[in-house]
Amino acid sequence: MTTAGVRATARLAARADGRGGTALPVLESEGPLALRRTRGTGDEARVMLVGAMSGPLGGDRFAVEAEVGEGARLRVGSAAATIALPGQAKGEARYDVRIEVAAGGELRWLPEQLISAKGSDLR
Known about the structure:
There is one protein chain. This protein has 123 residues and is mainly β. The chain contains no helices and 10 strands. The strands form 3 sheets. The chain has a 4-stranded mixed sheet with strand order 2-1-5-8, with no helix packed on it. It is elongated and about 50 Å long. The two termini are 13 Å apart.
């Protein structure tokens, strides 16, 4: 059984910009998931995933969606580890990651750990 909790999705897309670099035409986040563009190097774009509040807790549904196009280079990190806690609401918590990388694209996926604390029901 699940109980309603926080719903949040972070979306990012990287595309070759035609000048030897990588553009981020999609950089959207909400609620507890905050995406921040940081200074890239060379042709690589960099993004940090920042936890803007506690979670995921019981009943929460978080998702991160990343898409890297042909010729684009993207590095994704995070500011700190994420800790799934039991919370007051009962029910499972979900943290889904969906990644697509086109042929000729490059993704360096380097977020810190996702830790499931005792009593949490993370899926």
